[in-house]
Design a protein that fits this description.
Elements (H helix, E strand, L loop, with lengths): L2 E2 H16 L2 E7 L5 H8 L11 E4 L2 E5 L5 E6 L7 H16 L10 E7 L7 H13 L2 E6 L7 H8 L5 E4 L5 E2 L5 E2 L4 H11 L5 H7 L4 H22 L4 E2 L6 H15 L6 H12 L6 E2 L2 H9 L10 E2 L1 H25 L7 H14 L1
Parallel strand pairs: 2-5, 2-6, 6-7, 7-8
Antiparallel strand pairs: 1-12, 3-4, 4-5, 9-10, 11-13
Bound molecules: guanosine-5'-triphosphate (GTP) and magnesium ion.
The site of magnesium ion (MG) has 2 residues, from helix 2.
Length: 358
């Protein structure tokens, strides 16, 4: 049961990309409340700075960036006298998208931003909240949070269809005396957003955002759990050494899945480098019994191959060990470089070190 590594990698990329999907987030609020700042603090690659985006209505722009499974709909115009036409135009777009057969077209969540300093909720915001809540899960975000003074409660009262009202500070706040307040609420905004979107969009959210590293790890652990189950199933009757290639698609798929959840580029080059260092097969070779013996060498603690076969438990333990090692390497990298792009060779080297030390 030999597979060509190249084909396995292509299949894994395709599957991981499909499973990750695409998430659409609508962000609305008056001009200057901090929408762009919030977007840049939460999502990868300063996405809000990548030009003006494509206008979809007079006051709504669509922003996306190659390689990030996210589209942002940035809506303004609430301060205008004829805001009701802004809301009508927007409703057309939203209801059109939300009835599309392709769920990657739907708007999955809306963040309505209101500035804490203003201490006011305008009619335009109430109307927009009514309209949005009819079509999508709505989270109201109180921006530039400094001191609540009961404002959050007032907002809940006026915008009761909100799934949640959250206070957020997107950037560090510096006062005259040098006193500083760190950003806050961004982790929670991701957690709450995750709860209101369809489960199938969580990987896209994990991949697109950089504010909550734990969330990336949590989603990656789900990928590992799935691969562990698949490995155990593959090993339900002991896998003879000659058939251990059964595990290769599962493990390569897992590596692709974790890579995509962390928001890294899913290219053949990256994945080949990772796979060759993680499971010891190189680009031109066929995947065969090399894989398990390589992994067993890398994880001496995991037990030896009794009677020339590995059990379901060993198969799944190998897969978990590999997945956890990879998650920990990526998590270490991103905790030090939240905006960075890890180099495949660097990650491969760290992964090898990690597995040797496991
Ligand atoms: N202190 C503080 N300032 C913030 C925060 N968020 C945004 N700002 C500032 O508020 C100003 C407006 O922010 P933007 O992000 O441009 O606001 P916007 O909602 O995108 O504005 P428009 O694009 O005009 O609709 C900028 O000077 C930001 O630096 C925050 O959390 N704390
Ligand atoms: Mg803006």
């Amino acid at each position: 049961m030999d597979h060509k590594l190249d084909d396995l990698i292509s299949e894994a990329i395709q599957k991981a990309t499909t499973e990750r999907g695409h998430i659409n987030v609508l962000i609305a609020g008056r001009s200057g409340v901090g929408k762009s700042t919030l977007i840049n603090s939460v999502f990868q690659s300063k996405i809000a700075e990548t030009g003006q985006g494509r206008p979809v209505t007079q006051n709504t722009r669509e922003i996306s960036k190659e390689g990030i499974p996210l589209t942002i709909f940035d809506t303004r115009g609430l301060e205008m006298k004829d805001f009701s036409s802004t809301i009508e135009e927007l409703e057309k777009i939203i209801s059109q998208r939300c009835t599309d057969k392709d769920t990657n077209k739907h708007i999955h969540v809306a963040w309505l931003c209101i500035q804490e300093d203003g201490r006011r909720v305008e009619d335009a915001e109430i109307n927009l909240h009514n309209m949005l809540a009819k079509h999508v899960p709505l989270i109201t975000v109180i921006t530039k949070a400094r001191s609540d003074g009961g404002f959050k409660n007032d907002v809940w009262g006026l915008l009761p269809e909100s799934r949640n009202v959250m206070r957020v500070r997107a950037i560090e706040e510096e006062f005259d005396e040098g006193f500083k307040l760190p950003p806050m609420g961004l982790n929670e905004l991701i957690e709450i957003t995750s709860e209101v979107i369809p489960e199938g969009k969580r990987r896209a959210l994990a991949a697109s955002q950089k504010a909550n590293l734990k969330y990336k790890k949590d989603q990656a652990h789900k990928v590992v759990a799935g691969a562990a189950t698949a490995s155990a199933a593959a090993g339900a009757s002991p896998i003879p050494m000659s058939d251990v290639a059964i595990l290769a698609p599962v493990q390569i798929g897992m590596i692709a899945g974790i890579t995509s959840v962390f928001g890294m580029e899913l290219s053949k080059g990256t994945l080949s480098t990772l796979v060759s260092s993680a499971i010891g097969v190189t680009g031109v070779s066929f995947v065969g019994r090399a894989i398990v013996s390589n992994i067993l060498k890398l994880f001496p603690g995991i037990g030896s191959v009794a009677g020339g076969a590995i059990s379901a438990a060993t198969a799944s333990a190998l897969t978990v060990a590999l997945g956890e090692a990879y998650i920990s390497v990526l998590a270490n990298f991103f905790s030090e470089n939240p905006d960075g792009t890890p180099d495949a060779d660097y990650i491969a080297k760290k992964l090898k070190e990690k597995m040797k030390g496991a």
